[in-house]
Design goal:
Layout lengths: L1 H44 L8 H12 L2 H34 L1 H15 L7 H8 L3 H25 L3 H9 L4 H38 L5 H10 L3 H29 L1 H11 L1
Helix pairs in contact: 2-10, 3-4, 3-6, 3-8, 5-6, 6-8, 8-9, 8-10, 9-10
C-alpha cells in the first residue's frame, strides 16, 4: 500500500512538472508565434515589396548568415560588443565605487557627470573617428561612452545605500578597509550594479550597430545598412532578425549569471515574502 501510494505521488509530481514546463513554453513562445502568424497573414495580402513574409526572411537569413558572413560580420560585431561591455563594467564599477565612497568627490564630480551623461553617444562618433580613425578601437570607445553610464550611476547609488549600521559595526570590529569593500560594500551594491549592467547591455547593442553603420567595412550594422542601400529588403530584415536574436541571447545569458550572482539576494527576498 505504501509503495502504491508512493508511485501515485511520484506520478502526480511528474505530471505537475510536465504541466509547469508546458505552461512555461506556452508563455514564452505563445506571443511570438501569434505575431509571426499575424505577420504572415498581413504580408500575404500586402503589395509592398518592403514587407516580405516570414518564410522569405527565413530563407534570406539562411542564405545570408549561415556561412562566411557569420565569420566576417557577426563575430567581429560580437567581439566589439564584448570588449565594450567588459570595459564598461570595469570602469563603471571601479569609478562608481570610488565616487560612492567619497562624499566630497561625489559632490565635486556630480555637475560634470550630469553634463557628460546628457551628451548622446552617437554624436561622439565623428569626434572618435577624428581621434582614433575608422578602427575597432573607435567602435569600442563609442560603445563604452554610452554603456558605462548605467553601471556607473547604479554603482554610485548602490555603494551610497550600504547599511550604515553594518558599516559602523565592521569598523568597530576593526575590519580592514579592503575586507569591508569586498565583503560588505560590493555585495550590498550588487543588486543595483547588476541592474545597471542589464541596462548597459541594451545600450551597448544599440551603439554597436550605430557605430558600424557610420564607419565600418564589416559587422552587423554595416551589413544591414549595405542591404538597405542596395534594396535587398529580405536580407535587411534578416539582419534585423539576427540582431533581435542576439538581444534575446544576451538577456537569457545575463539572467542566468544574475541569478547565480544574486542567489543570496533572491533568497532573502523569498524569506521576507514568506
Amino acid at each position: 500500500m505504501t509503495a502504491y501510494t508512493g508511485r501515485i505521488a511520484t506520478t502526480q509530481r511528474s505530471r505537475n512538472v510536465g504541466t509547469r514546463i508546458a505552461a512555461s513554453i506556452l508563455h514564452t513562445l505563445g506571443l511570438p508565434t501569434l505575431l509571426l502568424v499575424l505577420w504572415a497573414l498581413v504580408a500575404t495580402r500586402a503589395t509592398s515589396q518592403f514587407f516580405p513574409d516570414p518564410l522569405t526572411i527565413a530563407e534570406a537569413f539562411r542564405e545570408t548568415w549561415v556561412g562566411p558572413a557569420f565569420v566576417e560580420d557577426v563575430l567581429p560585431s560580437l567581439a566589439r560588443l564584448g570588449l565594450g561591455v567588459a570595459a564598461s563594467i570595469v570602469l563603471g564599477i571601479a569609478a562608481g565605487t570610488v565616487i560612492g565612497l567619497t562624499h566630497w568627490l561625489r559632490e565635486l564630480l556630480e555637475p560634470l557627470l550630469e553634463f557628460l551623461r546628457a551628451i548622446p553617444p552617437p554624436v561622439l562618433i565623428p569626434v572618435a573617428m577624428l581621434l582614433l580613425g575608422i578602427t575597432d578601437t573607435m567602435k569600442v570607445v563609442v560603445i563604452v561612452s554610452g554603456a558605462v553610464w548605467p553601471i556607473l550611476l547604479n554603482t554610485i547609488e548602490g555603494v551610497r545605500g550600504t547599511d550604515s549600521v553594518m558599516t559602523e559595526t565592521a569598523q568597530s570590529f576593526r575590519v580592514s578597509w579592503w575586507e569591508r569593500l569586498w565583503f560588505l560594500v560590493l555585495p550590498a551594491a550588487s543588486p543595483r550594479i547588476m541592474a545597471g549592467v542589464r541596462q548597459a547591455l541594451s545600450v551597448a547593442l544599440i551603439l554597436m550597430v550605430i557605430s558600424e553603420m557610420f564607419a565600418s567595412s564589416s559587422g552587423l550594422g554595416y551589413r544591414i545598412a549595405y542591404f538597405q542601400r542596395n534594396y535587398l529588403i529580405a536580407e535587411m530584415w534578416s539582419g534585423i532578425l539576427l540582431l533581435g536574436l542576439v538581444g534575446v541571447f544576451l538577456a537569457v545569458a545575463f539572467g542566468l549569471v544574475e541569478r547565480r550572482v544574486l542567489r543570496w539576494y533572491h533568497g532573502i527576498r523569498e524569506v521576507n515574502r514568506a
